[in-house]
Amino acid sequence: MPDEPQESASAAIDTGTQVLQGTLDLMVLKTLETMGPQHGYGIARRIEQISENALRLNQGTIYPALLRLRQRGWIRAEWGTSENGRRARFYELTRAGKAQVEKETESWARVAATMARFLTT
Amino acid sequence: MTGRLRALANRIAAIFGRRDRDADLDEELRAHIEMAVEENRQRGMSEEAARRTALRSFGGVTQTRERFREQEGLLWFENFRRETAYALRQMRRSPGFTAVVIVTLALGIGANAAVFSVLNAVMLKPLAFRNADRLVQVLSSKNGTRMGPSPPDMRDFAAQNHTFMKLAVYDQWRKNVSTLPSGSDAEEVAVGLAPPDFFQSLGVEPILGRLFTADEGVEGHNHVALITDLFWQSHYQRDPRVLGRTITINDEPYTIVGVIPATIPGWLHSLQRQLPVFEPFLPYPGIWDEQSRDGRNYGAIGLLKPGVSLHEAQADLARIAGNLAASYPVDRGFTVALEPLASMRSGDLKPLLMLLMGAVALVLLIACANLAALLLARNTARKREFAMRRALGASRSALVRQVLAETLVFSLAGSAFGLAIAGTATRTLSLADPARLPQLADLTLDWRVLAFTLLAGIGTCLLFGIAPAWLSSRVDAASALKDGGRSSSAPGRHRFRRALVTAQIALSLMLLVAAGLLLQTLHRLQNQDLGLRIDHLARGHLYLPPAQYPTPQSITGFCDRVTERLRTEPGVQDVSVTTIYPPSDSWRMNFSIVGHALTRLEDVPSTIFGVVDANYLGVAGIPVVEGRDFADSDREQTVPVAVVNQTFVRRYFPGEDPIGRRIELGAPASLVARDVWMGDQRVTVTVAGVMRDNLDQGLAQPVAPQLIALYRQVPAVNFGFKEVLVRTEVAPDALVRALQKQVQSVDPRIPLAEVEPMSTYLGNMTAVQRFTGVILAGFAALGLGLAVMGIYGVIAYLVAERTREIGIRLALGASRRAVLWLVSQEGIRLALAGAAMGMIGVVLGGRSMASLLYRVSAFDALTLTACSLTLIVIAWLACVLPARRAAKIDPMQALRQE
Fold first, then answer.
1. Residue A40 is nearest to which of B28, B86, B395, comparing CB atoms?
2. What is the ipTM score, two decimals?
């Protein structure tokens, strides 16, 4: 049975707990929104720090995700120099990306609230 | 959705830019690891531990790279492969359906590819010359009429322009060529007359020896010849010692100085075949004299300087033409026109080919409509399957994609078979060459044809696939699964199928009308009154070279002897030697009517002109309507006489008696000393009779004024070019060999060439139209057949769907006749709507057809009515079968079914 190829490729986070698809994408987008232009390593470290290492992220999985976001036109990439003088690729939100963060944050909030209500009653 | 589209576009782009991207990714990943190592080291780890930890938290570089690539594009292939495999499985499951679809597509696409490959050979392929894009044809133009320029004009263009590298004037003459020094065993071939610039413009290099030099175009130096590779092969077995050998052309010896490749196409000379032999450009010794400035219609080509546009070159030559018109009265009113050389190749075939291409595309459209209906019906049957997959979570776009993948597989299979059909068709076509097109020699399946076929396949897939795919994906999972997929189809599908059939009928009507109009044109061309009796008439061509027949007297003597000899052949009734006969002749003679003084050269009238013998009108079967025919008693010593046609009388002697009027041949000596044809001689002829009008400008052209005289009485124009007409008592084909033998018995060095029945000669003139007409009629029939299938399908489906309703009607007492009418009126309604739409198409397309028609209007009421009625009747017949089935429904059974 064929399904959406985009979704099947986005199995992303290797964690002890089951994580819903698409979460990594939103985390990346949100990271870029708060931190501004950032390279892959920085994004990965930031996600690890924020989640307080609750998510054991294989840092490499960030790269297919970055490409996917780029293909959808939500982020753009540019080569630049890192804080310690290394050549690195920097990612930055596009206008469409900013809109996407807003949209997805909202829907996540809704899902999370629903789940919370569901689980507490 | 737009995000998805962009992602798809990016992925496709990624398939091409992979190497760069791989390098980029590697560098990015390396930077990542290094940053991690550095951070770990700063935290106090050893170099080795820092690296190990960094790699562990990265989680596998190779794996990441693979995932990245998958995201880049491989995934797309994977999905495509899976969907294709699924489609193939579906196709195997219903072989009948698959066969119908693929055969329909193969025929439709094959016919398109075949027509396109002709179009490609005639119009699209770049010319096979080195600087093909810089080659142009040079034409003179007066009052919108175009013709080849004259050599003196071309010489002045060549000397004064700033935009051309080379300009060359050329010609071809039918000459008697023999490889034997004695000149016997001569065959008549078209010999090219060309200066060195001609070959250099085309980029032709000799295989052996050299090209002509400039001074070989001068009288006395011009007895040199070039032969083509083919002639070298057929007459000299590629003997390299051919250089320096003598070839006899018109009984004069020429030295072979070079062999050129057979790359100069015949269409450059308006001939079917390539010319085998070339000699320097010197048609006659006075060709470069001032009196030749008005002798036009030579071939002319030019090679533009690099970077010069056609427009600039045109302006440059127009400036020179303006100066010439100011200096030379005969050039007054003449300007110059340039065309890319490629347009000379397509010639007047272009509109016909465009018509055929349009027609065959319509056929494919009609076929697509059938396939769309077929696919829709099948997908309706598969509704349960779709509903199931939808319920299992497949998105609507995934379903659309799946159905499209299936149609794409069909289309590609259809394209492949279609290409095979086109290949066979074009090979047969170029071998048989029913239309006698020199361009068909280049008929090949090159990359353009392949690309076209592929595009046609994909386009077809989208055309017949998208709508059914979209409509089929509109399944409501719950309800479809509940009723087991038996429910009646949505109204959207009905509307869609009706729209398809209406469009099919409209397109068929357009095809029918086009075919009808073209066939009527053909009929009118072939069956018009040419003004002569065609049956039992043969023609042939003679050329008497000046070396053997230097004087008009000797030419007349030969013609008399040939006439006498041919008359003795059993089966021959009478013979005429002439330069002119219907339906066309291009020789024009300036003249003046005695008593009508002319003061300006540009006022001098010209007429279609020919010189004949006294038998001409009798042999051709052209009646004399006034005065008398030529007679054997009109001799060299008697008063020169002429016969004019009725149009001549109307134009120049309106309301007067033409008999006895005197006409001076050649422009008046007071205005120009040397006339193009008469030179410094003038002959005054007396009109003895008026002949009935006969076609003299071609099949589709009105009759022009014509004057004929006796060659024995006008020696100044008694040239060696003669045509022979033979009126026979038996079928003329049977006499071909005998006639040739009789002429050879008079002089073995003079071949009687091009001997053929007049009907064959005329048939060749309409060959292209006949060919086009037949093919177009075939396309129309095919389109109509497909449309009938479409109507039948829709009505049959309708009957199947309404079985219950019809059963109720019958049970309630409706007559079978009423049911018959109920069903067939549905078909007739569709036919009427289609016909109305088709009429709109006909009106919109009519303008582009008008130029191809002769004596029939593009909006010919009779044709339009007949075609529409035919279509409606056929549509009705297509309904009869399902309607009768409906009328035979057993009401009890129909009601029990539910």
1. B28
2. 0.81
